[in-house]
């Protein structure tokens, strides 16, 4: 590794890029050293390039000087993807690279710079009646396309796969500043799938600069359904049946605790704003009279429609013909009833589809608590067993959790014909960090209590997170946002892991590109 200049370790970088692109003030370094969960070392600087050429020049200069590169998307991660404490590093923030380069309606591909948010891209495509195939995560108001391609993610358009399945190809900046284009401009794969080698890499192989994504026509017909289930096994089996039949574009559920937490959130003002967006969406798809009718139903239901509901399931069916999606929803209802569920007011999927990228206020609990998720993607055959193992874990730790005010709930989401996501979330007392202050809406944050830090509760959450991951791993789960939290090497065939190591050595011979991400250490030979 090249030795750093003792007097000014950033000298080589400042000589290569504009001084305005480097943030070194205390507030910026503090903010960018935090993710949703924890804190890492401070970078030498935050590098916010204004062009792809400047991005490449800055990375090249930094690594030539022995400075590690740590890329960051929108900052909505909780797995240490952009936290690093292994030595001097430059944190790369592509927020200024948010241009839409081309929308090709003939070949149905959109080309964007990697710093664009899913929300901005969706709003730009909507007037054309277009969207990306898998079009982002719930955090998409801040989460970036480049971050999604590096960390992977899933929610909107889940029937079509995760967000990296929407990628056609990337322009990636390697550790030496070389810009590599993967695959073709309109079809994937073109020979061995080079795009996939750089997808979900958590920035260990390079920094995404430009992304080409598959476009589809936005749906013009929608149907919504919400359902109550008395127990977890009935819910999970119904969700699996709905997913295998490909009846819903999105299908997600809450356990009783998380459901109650969500009903506590937000104000009536925000309810009214979200309802207004829903009315506009209903009017576009079904006319003003349908919009008024559906809006009245939601308003009358208020927040009481889930009172007494143990587990709730919410489904969205979408397509081109209203009769077809309504038939899909009737088929969903039949599956629900077959598994012992019943119909409740469908406010949640209606409002959420009309407001797909809400502010990230759920980064804190409704009482100001700290919050963090942990997840596993499991085959349908393992869902009930996974859920019951988690409940045993909570039961075994119930006394300590109650003493330290650590609470848990869970989001469940169907993620395709073969799999489903179980995402336990933890709430516990603790101080808000700079990322919370930066990302949560100011008026919402002002209403939340400021809780004292509880190191003992935080330690319990860390231990329980590890035990949840072990449960998932024991059942063959896979994970997104692998970063520095989820195991990868242990689940790989040894020969497959050697291929990843060889790729790391090829694209990052000095081991300076997000060292430690994916379990690949700072030494490229790790």
Folded structure, characterized:
The chain has 526 residues and is α+β, with helices and mostly antiparallel strands. The chain has 5 domains: 84 residues, 2-Layer Sandwich (Uridine Diphospho-n-acetylenolpyruvylglucosamine Reductase, domain 2); 118 residues, Uridine Diphospho-n-acetylenolpyruvylglucosamine Reductase, domain 3 (2-Layer Sandwich); 134 residues, Alpha-Beta Plaits (2-Layer Sandwich); 114 residues, GMP Synthetase, Chain A, domain 3, CATH 3.30.300; 39 residues, no CATH class. It has 18 helices and 18 strands. The strands form 3 sheets. Strands 11, 12, 13, 14, 15, 16, 17 and 18 form an 8-stranded antiparallel β-sheet that branches. Strands 5, 6, 7, 8, 9 and 10 form a 6-stranded antiparallel β-sheet that branches. The protein has a 4-stranded mixed β-sheet with strand order 1-2-4-3, with helices on both faces. α9 packs across α12 and α13 runs antiparallel to α17. The longest helix has 20 residues. It is globular. The chain starts with 10 loop residues before the first helix and ends in a 19-residue tail after the last helix. About 3% of the residues have low confidence.
């Amino acid at each position: 590794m090249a030795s750093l200049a003792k007097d000014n370790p950033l000298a080589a970088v400042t000589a290569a890029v504009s001084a305005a692109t480097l943030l070194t003030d205390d507030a910026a370094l503090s903010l960018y050293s935090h993710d949703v969960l924890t804190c890492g070392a401070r970078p030498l600087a935050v590098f916010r390039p204004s062009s792809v050429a400047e991005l490449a020049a800055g990375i090249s200069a930094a690594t030539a000087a022995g400075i590690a590169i740590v890329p960051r998307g929108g900052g909505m991660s909780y797995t240490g993807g952009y936290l690093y404490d292994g030595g001097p590093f430059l944190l790369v923030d592509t927020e200024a690279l948010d241009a839409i380069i081309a929308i090709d309606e003939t070949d149905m591909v959109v080309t964007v710079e990697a710093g664009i948010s899913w929300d901005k891209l969706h709003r730009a495509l909507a007037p054309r009646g277009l969207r990306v195939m898998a079009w982002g995560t719930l955090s998409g108001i801040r989460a970036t396309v480049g971050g999604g391609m590096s960390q992977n993610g899933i929610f909107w358009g889940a029937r079509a796969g995760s967000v990296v399945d929407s990628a056609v190809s990337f322009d990636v900046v390697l550790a030496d500043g070389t810009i590599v284009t993967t695959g073709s401009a309109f079809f994937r794969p073109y020979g061995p799938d080079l795009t996939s080698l750089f997808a979900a890499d958590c920035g260990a192989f390079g920094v995404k600069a430009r992304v080409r994504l598959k476009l589809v026509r936005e749906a013009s017909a929608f149907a919504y359904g919400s359902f109550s289930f008395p127990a977890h096994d009935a819910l999970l089996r119904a969700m699996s049946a709905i997913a295998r039949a490909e009846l819903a574009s999105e299908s997600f559920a809450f356990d009783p605790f998380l459901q109650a937490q969500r009903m506590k959130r937000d104000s009536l003002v925000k309810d009214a704003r979200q309802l207004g967006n829903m009315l506009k969406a209903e009017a576009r798809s079904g006319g003003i009279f349908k919009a008024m009718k559906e809006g009245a139903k939601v308003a009358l239901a208020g927040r009481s429609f889930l009172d007494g509901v143990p587990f709730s399931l919410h489904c969205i069916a979408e397509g081109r013909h209203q009769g077809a999606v309504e038939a899909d929803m009737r088929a969903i209802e039949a599956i629900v009833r077959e598994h012992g569920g019943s119909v409740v007011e469908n406010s949640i999927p209606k409002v959420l589809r009309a407001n797909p990228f809400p502010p990230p206020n759920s980064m804190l609990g409704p009482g100001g608590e700290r919050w963090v998720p942990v997840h596993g993607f499991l085959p349908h055959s393992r869902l009930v067993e996974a859920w019951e193992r988690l409940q045993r874990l909570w039961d075994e730790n119930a006394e300590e959790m109650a003493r330290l005010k650590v609470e848990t709930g869970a989001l469940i989401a169907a993620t395709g014909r073969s799999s489903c996501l179980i995402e336990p979330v933890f709430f516990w007392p603790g101080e808000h960090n700079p990322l919370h202050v930066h990302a949560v809406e100011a008026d919402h944050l002002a209403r939340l209590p400021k809780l004292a830090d509880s190191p003992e509760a935080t330690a319990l959450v860390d231990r329980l997170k590890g035990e949840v991951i072990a449960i998932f791993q024991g059942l063959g789960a896979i994970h997104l946002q692998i970063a520095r939290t989820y195991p990868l090497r242990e689940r790989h065939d040894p020969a497959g892991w050697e291929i990843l190591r060889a790729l790391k050595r090829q694209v990052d011979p000095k081991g300076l590109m997000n060292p430690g991400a994916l379990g690949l250490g700072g030494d490229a030979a790790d």
